[in-house]
Amino acid sequence: MRTQALLLSLFFFLFLIGFSAAHSRKIRSHKPCKRLIFYFHDIIYNGHNAKNATATIVGAPAGGNMTILAGQNHFGNVVVFDDPVTLDNNLHSPPVGRAQGFYMYDKKEIFTAWLGFSMVFNSTQHKGSINFAGADPLMNKTRDISVIGGTGDFFMTRGIATLMTDAYEGEVYFRLKADIKLYECWSL
User: Fold this and answer.
1) Is 136 within 8 Å of 126 (Cβ atoms)?
2) What is the DSSP string of 30-77?
3) What's the pTM value of the predicted model, to 2 decimals?
4) Cα Rg for the chain, rounded, in angstroms?
């Protein structure tokens, strides 16, 4: 019986050491396994720019106009986009992918939106997609949204994307800088 108690104590001690070591590794691994910086360029259709538009209003408040964003911080507008993604802030740089998804303006009192989109890559450098979702308080200089998965080179990835409005021209064009930090990297 004493031998069993000793073995049980030893097993419990080794379990705690193993648990503690595994737990401390998780705590120390706050550095991203991959970091990427991209720019995406959103040109909202305004009734006159069909050739260049990469986004369009698909939902508007009652009585709203589908080519002009609503008043009251655009509350109620839903926009679908297919924006070029570049490695620098030049709209005319060769795209390395597309940002495809939607955003909706979700508050009357403050200028904010909710985003759900994928960056889809098909270049020599990256293949696959990274998926994003989260609140975008547009008046903040930087804001974080969740990286919630991916495919191809980014299979099952997780992380944070820090967005910054890099430029805007009225209500027709804006450029976002996305600083993507991935913390779960399966195939990178």
Assistant:
1) no
2) -S-SEEEEEEEEEEB--SS-TTT--EEEEE-STT--SSS--HHHHTT-
3) 0.79
4) 23
- What pLDDT, on a 0 to 100 scale, did the predictor assign at position 9? 57
pLDDT tens for 135-146 read: 999 889 999 999
Q: How far is CA 15 from the centre of its chain?
A: 38
Cα 147 from Cα 137, distance rounded (Å): 17
Pairing type for strands 158-169 and 142-152 reads antiparallel
Cα–Cα distance, 58 to 106 (Å, whole number)? 15
- Give the whole-angstrom CA distance, residue 70 versus residue 92: 29
How far, in Å, CA of 135 to CA of 112, rounded? 8
In the numeric block, which tokens belong to residue 134?
């989260």
Q: Per this entry, what is the length of the chain?
A: 188
Burial of 93 (0-12, 13-18, 19+ CB in 10 A): middle
What stretches in the chain show pLDDT beneath 50? 10, 14, 20-25, 27-28, 188
Any idea what the Cα angle at residue 96 is, between residues 41 and 48, rounded to 5°? 30
